């Protein structure tokens, strides 16, 4: 490309290049652009990644699974990755589980040197020779790569390696000496001094050097000096060479963090003489823990996990340790680094019980015989295991991990705590809450610090009374696989007697059928890991674990069958080659293994493995040998070989051999060619094994320079000739560094080494190719080999298929998470893949379609709900997702993700396709399954939602929260609203449960636990009047402890039963009216039951009992006992019958669907409660307790008064300043927005036609009419504050002309709110986010400007008000949403106040001077502030009765600020007010004193400031104004030097609107260029959300296949859009020129990569752009003046262009030569050139193309041409008369003509003439055959190719659609200007219309 072209085709500012070669593929709605020509990722880039703060995001999952190659996430199709195309880089951070990848992984490139290869490929690693080695840029020593890690394994003595005693490679400062320590009996270093910074040991000695230590763990062996402070500084380098300082000290009082520094307070507890004195929660304050070291401080082993510290707190990848500084005052023995996690305290017999790694002797502290390690030393491990949260939960910020806490509650600061008590071992700590019944004490108050509270008991001793472990992570939970129990720390073994699928207690006589439940389906995948997924040898089914269940899924039918028996999560699977034997192991130590008959599902053998935890299993092909790998009791790796050949014949499993190894083993396989040979790989080793003579022996493979790699998986390749000899076999291994090694099994050497590296985007700061050793590779987690290809799964989310020579990628599929396992089917046609995010599917290599098999929650399921009509299931989980499933197929339909709050409860609306969900923030939202959006939200609760239920008729909804409030909603219509909110009704400390609230089957009664744990209350569901209160605590008179209720459930209405489960393991059946006991079920389960339900026929009672489900026969008084069903590996949280009572669902670790085998009787006779006199002694578990009814203190509670039961309406405020429905979570700080620099709204040029007042058109209903508005492309950049965004709810709206566009930032779905008669000037969203106000300018049809008030949930206009005679400049709601203020422009100068209850005008004021901005004081709803010319006006609202008056106080602007006008304002912390001026100043006011005390120059253009300032020159700046509050006290003496600029971004136009979150970390900004940007200050990026043309759109053309369309504009740009999503893909920008016409080459011109665009410009040039290469191919000048029309010939080899002088040029687009010029139309501009393919013999001429040219003098010429033969003949010449006056908007209407698509002999013409009409001319008959009258002169014309429709646009902002077959017509409005362009797509399914820079996309329903 020439320099001229490169200058003309400019890259869009703020965008990113996303493809190395810009291959634009049909069907991909992704943004791609070249490196040299420029391209832009535009609207949707941040949307696809999930804009932060968009609240709960609803999306429909891709049915086809991950993206394949260049396909655009299509639901049903996928294709291969074309060369040069890369996946799209993430635009912004994603809340629910964001699936964003680093930009460096946007593509996969070449490792090594060689010929450039497109796309992703693997090449053999080779070091380039000096002759061809690329030049290297000198780098600083800090950027040097760390040294190889081989010499650092298994650990490194840092002091010895760097010879600290010589002080050559280290440095010391101050008082540093070597002393002898009596405890350690050896030399140690003493560092002391009064100033820590002046006394230290530094490693290395120079700051320009680096230690290069790559070990994950750093062990610091030190002892603090008593009564002193100490500091430890670590400089850690990340993989992207960012240096982070990590500091630990008892000098720090709290945790602090920045982007480059983490400060942790290291708390030291003192040892006490009495046991238990240092238990957590004993009322210590912060000052008790932070400060000087205790007098008896002991030697401490400080173990720091550097990898997790960076990941958890900064979301960065650990590279290496750069330097260490140990500062006074302390003693230090040594420093060690290692990749192994050592346990320093436990040794000897204790190791037999714990899977730990011993501390090496060199590192260990000496322990005298008979003494305890914990009595002498302290071990601190940081972070704790529980703090190692998944990376997707870590926000990319500097906040501590409390930012990702689940659920409400205090959020303590992270800090490691050292104590005199020992840590038992490194098991995840557990947060424990003391039980008031157990200790008799009240729960302890939350501590200001999180501590590891350590016990004085031995590690193997139980501690029932102790506090156990307290987590640094408040949301840590106890897993079933923990070695110790949470309460006592006792060791738990899994007994074989519990390993039965169904347990029946008592006699089963009379309880039929037996069993009553049968497992039908499972929703879930994984559990222990997601690496276990296998093909059956015939390739018809997939075998995978789902927690404790093994599932066999037939891929063609979706049918499941199960292997039940494990009681814990399955950790490993293996299947033999004949599908006879299936081996499985469960995770709980010691591991229990099972061998199954795969065909019958019968368990053949159950045995305990000598391996403590089995992590991998592998069968020989015959099934006679089974090998397993895991850890033994000592934590060492063990390999076991079992003989399984006799199991199928009734024999036993025998251990053939066992072997221990010190090498890490991550994968282990038995070879296919010899059952006695195996292979393994792991950290730094690949070993070949052999079973011989009853022993397992191994030998290493010579890895050479690859011996430090971390290998993850291996696979064998069979020789091409099918030879099974080991000499012909090759072994492939993969690593986390991206290497794939091909190993010769005979020579045991590496034959080939290849590496997968990320590719840099072209034009970036780094080269596209990297050398073998440069940069981190893409971590490969799994690979699988077939005879023809290799499948590779990597942690960047890609599945890639390679040929065995790894020359190029055959196919790749992108997943939503890291790929954890891949497996090629035996026939090699399907590739199974699993991801760590719980997705399982396979790629069909023939059809290139990805099929999703299973999706799964990644955390336990908390609640479920079912919908009957559609057969759908909703689940909520601790992974913060709400998912909708199809019960018939068990496939996921939708998922909704929340990044800031956790869903807690869910229920369906009984009659509408809507479900309700409650969240931890207290919000209750409704989700429509038809629109996948959040229509309504209520935030009347202050605590987490604990219960949610609806009445059977759907009229009422109830919710309860952890604060004890109960809310009632009316759901009679979709716009549901709050009826009542009652405080202190529900038990406040009750956990969230599906059975927390219960509604009777007839909907008349509501029951719940409350107001205390010991009571159950029954109220009237309609009025919430209390009807019954039962004291559960007095039910069991024989028990000495107080009982409490756990869950409630109503029986059928005919029974009138209320069932209550209690903490004493009973289920009590009460009479719902009188409260008397009918009967009870004692001892239902050792643990309380969180959920229970009764079938509709009252036949079966279902109870969630721990990890089991219990079914009771409810109809039998003398019940034989329950049937017990196992399968869950974690406690069951919810059980429910399906609406048809034919199925049962249970949810816990996964969702199980059970068939009810009992037949349902239609006329069921409900059991009648026996009379009290008939009751005898209880028989069986179902005890009749009615005889004790008289002993129960029963009381009919009187109905409460209004005062005792407050009922709040929608706008009512609860007591103590609460709000019944308004979200007050952010009430503590004002919402920050950046205001515009423009002083007034500048409306676009509006059509003013004498006929416009006669036209009454409107948008037809969405389902009616011939057109439906589908999308709006563009944003009104000439508005003012005409965009709103609420991060907490995700509501996003902006204006485009007369429309208000509400867009879902996640899915891109749009709503269009119409009704304004003029362009919308401004928007305002209420603080509750329930109401949106929009105002428009003046129009010719209305006397006043319209202000419309919209209901956000329904999108309906609730109020239409008007008062201003001129344009409304600004709108604002008061903080309490009771008032709305509207501000007129400079001509009107009117300030109006409206009451939001009825929207009546409350007050109106004529302003003395123009005002540019208005705002309410967020801290005082009675204060209103205006800014204008030289003054700030404070207005105080005073209300006297119904009247409101304004008390005005004006303050002049100081001279120091300058003479500019105040253009914007915003409030900061009270009492600060920031104002921006037109001269670029920011001034700060004290609103209390009414004075300006500080100003500074922020820009050289108009400013809008709210910590963020945006100017008229496009600069967006972030200011640090934290010190402004302190400067207020200095008055006029305050200096602006305390205010400094943190960040700056330059946008594409003046800032006119902005909205930021409360922390001003991210926001959305609108500019005059018609662009909405998503701004992230943390990343320093700006990403386009909405992009439109800045100026008039002149043409719209469509590519072949309708995958893309292109537009051109007077701003000089040519933009290519993805037609499906209307996202900007490519932009070609020519500077200082207008693009006036455009044409897309026809599909017959060649292959898709040869698609071209021809664009004509105002300077007479014609440019040819290559769409595939995103480059300009040719520039020519066929015309001396501006081009006005351009078209390709039908073969694409010729371009016809017309100019404004009437000349038509014919040129070759490849050579640029013009070989013919037609001057027949000279003197009038060419307005249209239309080409069609037609044989012209019937017209009397020869030619292959028929084309016409229309000019402004109402003449049309028709030509027949054959350009290959250089023939062009005139066919016809048409002239139409023109009257004297036909001007529209001062210009003549254009002359337009087009060939008729449905009749090639017809030509249609519109233009200025005697009549307003469409003229239809027949070329064969040479005459006009029809005329269609029009209401106005046409401005645009388009004919539908698929029907008889004709679209005509008018200057009167109207569009008419004419059915030429019937003669009927329909008019449409929506544009704010003349509709000068309309174009049907080639398929006739869409219609594009344009008015200036607005583009509307209409759907054309089939007619």
Q: Gyration radius, to the nearest Å?
A: 38 Å
Structural classification: mainly beta
The whole-number mean of residue pLDDT values reads 75
Strand content: 35-45%
Uncertain spans: 1-57, 60-148, 270-289, 386-415, 417-510, 761-774, 1160-1264, 1501-1506
How many H/I helical runs? Answer: 8
Based on CA inertia axes, which overall geometry fits?
globular
Separation of the first and last Cα atoms = 48 Å
Helix content estimate? under 10%
Oligomer: single chain
Number of strands: 136
Largest sheet: 7 strands, mixed
Summarize the structure in words.
It is a single chain. By secondary structure, this protein is mainly beta. The chain is built from eight helices and 136 strands. Strands 5, 7, 8, 10, 16, 18 and 21 form a seven-stranded mixed beta sheet that branches. A seven-stranded mixed beta sheet has the order 6-9-17-11-12-14-13. Strands 1-57-56-55-54 form a five-stranded antiparallel beta sheet, with no helix packed on it.
């Amino acid at each position: 490309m020439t320099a001229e072209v490169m200058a003309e085709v400019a890259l869009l500012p703020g965008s990113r290049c996303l493809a190395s070669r810009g291959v634009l593929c049909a069907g991909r709605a992704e943004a791609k652009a070249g490196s040299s020509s420029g391209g832009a990722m535009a609207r949707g880039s941040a949307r696809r990644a999930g804009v932060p703060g968009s609240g709960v995001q609803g999306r429909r999952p891709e049915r086809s699974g991950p993206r394949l190659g260049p396909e655009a996430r299509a639901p049903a199709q996928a294709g291969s990755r074309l060369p040069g195309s890369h996946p799209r880089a993430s635009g912004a951070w994603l809340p629910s589980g964001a699936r964003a990848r680093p930009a460096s992984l946007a593509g996969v490139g070449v490792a090594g040197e060689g010929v450039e290869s497109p796309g992703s490929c693997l090449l053999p690693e080779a070091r380039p020779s000096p002759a061809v080695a690329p030049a290297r840029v000198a780098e600083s020593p800090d950027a040097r790569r760390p040294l190889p890690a081989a010499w650092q394994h298994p650990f490194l003595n840092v002091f010895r390696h760097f010879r600290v005693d010589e002080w050559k490679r280290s440095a010391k400062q101050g008082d540093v000496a070597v002393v002898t320590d009596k405890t350690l009996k050896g030399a140690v270093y003493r560092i002391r001094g009064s100033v820590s910074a002046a006394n230290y040991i530094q490693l290395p000695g120079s700051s320009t050097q680096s230690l290069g230590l790559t070990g994950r763990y750093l062990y610091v062996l030190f002892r603090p000096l008593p009564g002193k402070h100490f500091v430890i500084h670590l400089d850690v380098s990340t993989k992207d060479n960012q240096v982070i300082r990590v500091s630990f000290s008892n000098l720090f009082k709290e945790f602090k963090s920045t982007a480059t520094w983490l400060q942790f307070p290291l708390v030291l507890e003192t040892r006490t003489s009495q046991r238990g004195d240092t238990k957590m929660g004993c009322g210590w304050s912060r000052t008790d823990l932070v400060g000087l070291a205790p007098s008896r401080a002991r030697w401490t082993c400080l173990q720091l996990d550097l990898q997790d510290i960076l990941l958890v707190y900064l979301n960065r990848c650990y590279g290496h340790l750069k330097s260490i500084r140990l500062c006074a005052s302390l003693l230090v023995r040594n420093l060690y680094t290692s990749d192994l996690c050592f346990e320093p305290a436990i040794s000897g017999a204790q190791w037999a019980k714990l899977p730990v790694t011993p501390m090496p002797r060199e590192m260990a502290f000496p322990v005298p015989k008979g003494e305890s390690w914990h009595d002498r030393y302290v071990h601190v491990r940081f972070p704790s295991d529980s703090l190692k949260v998944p990376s997707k939960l870590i926000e990319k910020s500097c906040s501590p991990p409390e930012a990702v806490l689940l659920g409400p509650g205090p959020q303590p600061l992270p800090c490691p705590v050292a104590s005199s008590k020992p840590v038992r071992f490194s098991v995840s700590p557990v947060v424990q809450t003391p039980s008031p019944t157990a200790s008799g004490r009240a729960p302890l108050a939350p501590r200001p610090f999180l501590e590891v509270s350590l016990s004085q008991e031995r590690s193997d001793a139980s501690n029932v009374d102790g506090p156990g472990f307290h987590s640094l992570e408040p949301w840590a939970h106890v897993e079933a696989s923990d070695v110790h129990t949470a309460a006592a720390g006792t060791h738990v073994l899994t007994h074989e007697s519990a390993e039965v699928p169904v347990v029946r207690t008592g006699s089963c006589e009379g309880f039929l059928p037996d069993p009553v439940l049968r497992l039908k389906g499972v929703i879930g995948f994984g559990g222990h890991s997601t690496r276990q997924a296998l093909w059956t040898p015939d390739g018809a089914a997939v075998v995978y674990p789902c927690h404790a269940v093994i599932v066999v899924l037939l891929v063609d039918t979706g049918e499941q069958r199960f292997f039940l028996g494990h009681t814990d999560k399955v950790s490993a699977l293996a299947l033999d080659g004949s599908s006879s034997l299936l081996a499985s192991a469960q995770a709980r130590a010691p591991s229990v293994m099972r061998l199954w008959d795969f065909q019958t599902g019968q368990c053949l053998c159950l045995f305990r493995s000598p391996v403590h935890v089995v992590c991998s299993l592998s069968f020989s092909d015959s099934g006679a040998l089974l090998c397993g790998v895991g850890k033994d009791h000592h934590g060492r790796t063990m390999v076991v070989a079992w003989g399984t050949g006799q199991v199928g014949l009734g024999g036993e499993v025998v251990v053939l051999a066992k072997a221990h190894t010190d090498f890490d083993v991550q994968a282990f396989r038995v070879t296919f060619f010899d059952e006695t040979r195996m292979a393994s790989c792991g950290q730094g080793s690949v070993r070949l094994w052999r079973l011989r003579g009853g022993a397992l022996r191994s030998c290493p493979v010579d890895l050479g320079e690859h011996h430090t790699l971390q290998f993850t998986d291996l696979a064998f390749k069979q020789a091409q000739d099918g030879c099974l000899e080991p000499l012909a076999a090759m072994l492939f291994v993969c690593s986390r560094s991206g290497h794939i090694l091909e190993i010769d099994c005979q020579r045991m050497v590496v034959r080939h080494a290849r590496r997968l590296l990320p590719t840099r985007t072209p034009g970036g700061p780094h080269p596209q190719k990297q050398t073998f050793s440069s940069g981190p590779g893409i971590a490969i987690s799994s690979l699988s080999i077939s005879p023809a290809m290799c499948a590779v799964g990597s942690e960047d989310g890609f599945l890639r298929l390679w040929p065995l020579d790894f020359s190029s990628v055959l196919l790749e599929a992108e997943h939503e998470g890291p790929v954890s396992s891949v497996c090629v089917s035996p026939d090699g046609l399907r590739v199974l893949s699993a991801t760590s995010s719980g997705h399982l599917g396979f790629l069909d290599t023939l059809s290139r379609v990805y099929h999703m098999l299973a999706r799964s929650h990644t955390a336990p399921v908390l609640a479920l709900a079912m919908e009957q009509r559609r057969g759908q299931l909703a689940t909520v989980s601790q992974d913060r997702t709400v998912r909708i499933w199809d019960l018939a197929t068990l496939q996921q339909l939708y998922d909704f993700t929340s990044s800031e709050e956790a869903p807690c409860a869910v229920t369906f609306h009984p009659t509408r396709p809507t479900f309700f969900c409650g969240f931890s923030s207290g919000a209750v939202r409704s989700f429509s399954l038809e629109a996948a959006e959040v229509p309504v939200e209520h935030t009347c609760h202050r605590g987490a939602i604990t219960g949610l239920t609806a009445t059977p008729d759907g009229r009422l909804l109830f919710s309860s929260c952890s604060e004890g409030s109960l809310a009632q909603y009316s759901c009679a219509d979709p716009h549901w609203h709050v009826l009542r909110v009652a405080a202190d009704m529900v038990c406040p400390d009750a956990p969230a449960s599906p059975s927390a609230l219960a509604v009777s089957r007839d909907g008349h009664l509501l029951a719940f636990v409350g107001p205390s744990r010991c009571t159950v209350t029954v109220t009237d569901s309609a009025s919430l009047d209390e009807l019954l209160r039962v004291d559960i605590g007095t039910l069991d008179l024989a028990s000495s402890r107080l009982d409490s209720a756990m869950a409630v459930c109503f029986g059928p209405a005919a029974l009138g039963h209320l069932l209550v489960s209690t903490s004493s393991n009973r289920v009590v059946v009460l009479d719902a009216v009188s409260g008397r006991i009918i009967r009870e079920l004692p001892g239902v389960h050792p643990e309380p039951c969180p959920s229970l339900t009764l079938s509709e026929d009252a036949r079966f009672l279902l109870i969630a009992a721990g990890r089991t489900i219990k079914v009771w026969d409810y109809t039998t008084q003398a019940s034989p006992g329950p049937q017990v069903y196992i399968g869950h590996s974690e406690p069951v949280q919810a059980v429910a019958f399906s609406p048809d009572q034919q199925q049962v669902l249970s949810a816990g670790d996964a969702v199980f669907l059970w068939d009810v085998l009992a037949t349902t009787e239609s006329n069921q006779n409900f059991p009648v409660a026996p009379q009290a006199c008939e009751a005898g002694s209880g028989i069986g578990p179902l005890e009749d307790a009615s005889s004790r009814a008289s002993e129960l203190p029963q009381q009919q509670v009187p109905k409460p008064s209004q005062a005792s039961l407050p009922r709040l309406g929608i706008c009512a405020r609860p007591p103590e300043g609460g709000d019944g429905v308004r979200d007050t979570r952010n009430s503590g700080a004002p919402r920050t927005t950046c205001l515009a620099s423009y002083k007034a709204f500048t409306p676009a040029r509006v059509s003013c036609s004498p006929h416009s007042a006669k036209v009454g058109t409107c948008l037809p209903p969405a389902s009616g009419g011939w057109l439906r508005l589908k999308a709006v492309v563009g944003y009104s950049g000439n508005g003012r504050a005409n965009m709103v965004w609420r991060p907490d709810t995700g509501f996003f709206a902006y204006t485009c002309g007369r429309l208000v566009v509400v867009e879902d930032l996640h899915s891109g779905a749009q709503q269009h709110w119409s009704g304004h008669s003029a362009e919308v000037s401004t928007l305002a969203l209420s603080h509750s986010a329930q109401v949106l106000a929009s105002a428009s300018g003046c129009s010719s049809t209305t006397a006043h400007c319209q202000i419309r008030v919209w209901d956000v949930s329904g999108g309906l206009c609730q109020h239409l008000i008007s008062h201003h005679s001129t344009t409304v400049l600004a709108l604002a709601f008061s903080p309490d949403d009771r008032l709305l203020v509207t501000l007129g422009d400079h001509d009107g100068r009117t300030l109006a106040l409206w009451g939001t209850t009825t929207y009546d005008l409350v007050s109106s004021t004529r302003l003395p001077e123009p005002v540019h901005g208005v705002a309410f004081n967020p801290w005082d709803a009675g204060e209103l502030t205006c800014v204008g010319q030289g003054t700030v006006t404070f207005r105080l609202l005073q209300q006297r009765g119904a009247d409101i008056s304004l008390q005005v106080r004006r303050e002049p602007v100081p001279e120091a600020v300058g003479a500019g006008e105040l253009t914007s304002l915003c409030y900061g912390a009270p009492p600060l007010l920031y104002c921006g001026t037109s001269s670029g100043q920011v001034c700060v006011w004290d609103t209390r004193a009414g004075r300006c005390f500080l100003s500074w120059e922020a820009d050289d253009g108009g400013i809008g400031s709210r910590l963020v300032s945006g100017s008229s020159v496009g600069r967006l700046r972030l200011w640090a104004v934290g010190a402004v509050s302190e400067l207020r006290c200095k008055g006029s003496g305050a200096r602006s030097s305390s205010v400094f600029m943190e960040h700056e971004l330059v946008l594409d136009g003046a800032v006119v609107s902005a909205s930021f979150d409360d922390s001003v970390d991210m926001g959305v900004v609108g500019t005059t260029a018609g662009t909405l940007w998503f701004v992230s200050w943390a990343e320093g990026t700006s990403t386009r959300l909405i992009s439109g043309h800045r100026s008039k759109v002149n043409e719209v053309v469509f590519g072949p296949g309708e995958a893309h369309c292109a537009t051109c504009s007077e701003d000089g740009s040519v933009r290519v859009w993805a037609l499906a999503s209307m996202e900007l893909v490519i932009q070609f920008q020519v500077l200082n020129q207008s693009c006036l016409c455009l044409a897309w080459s026809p599909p017959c011109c060649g292959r898709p990569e040869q698609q071209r665009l021809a664009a004509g410009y105002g300077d007479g040039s014609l440019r040819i752009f290559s769409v595939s290469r995103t480059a300009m191919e040719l520039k020519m000048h066929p015309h001396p003046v501006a081009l006005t029309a351009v078209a390709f010939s039908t073969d694409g080899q010729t371009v016809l262009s017309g100019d404004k002088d009437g000349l038509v040029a014919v040129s070759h687009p490849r050579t640029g030569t013009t070989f013919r010029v037609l001057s027949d139309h000279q003197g009038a501009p060419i307005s249209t050139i239309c080409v069609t393919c037609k044989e012209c013999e019937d017209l009397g001429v020869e030619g292959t193309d028929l084309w016409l040219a229309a000019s402004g003098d109402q003449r049309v010429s028709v030509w027949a041409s054959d350009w290959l033969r250089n023939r062009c003949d005139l066919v016809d010449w048409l002239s139409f008369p023109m009257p004297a006056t036909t001007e529209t908007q001062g210009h003549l209407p254009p002359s337009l003509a087009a060939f008729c698509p449905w009749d090639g002999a017809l030509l249609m013409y519109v233009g200025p003439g005697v009549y307003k009409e469409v003229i239809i001319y027949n070329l064969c008959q040479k005459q006009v055959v029809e005329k269609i009258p029009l209401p106005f002169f046409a401005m645009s014309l388009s004919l539908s190719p698929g029907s008889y429709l004709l679209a005509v646009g008018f200057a009167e902002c109207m569009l008419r659609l004419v059915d030429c077959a019937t003669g009927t017509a329909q008019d449409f409005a929506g544009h704010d200007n003349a509709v000068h362009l309309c174009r049907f797509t080639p398929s006739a399914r869409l219609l594009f219309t344009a008015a200036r820079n607005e583009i509307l996309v209409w759907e054309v329903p089939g007619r």
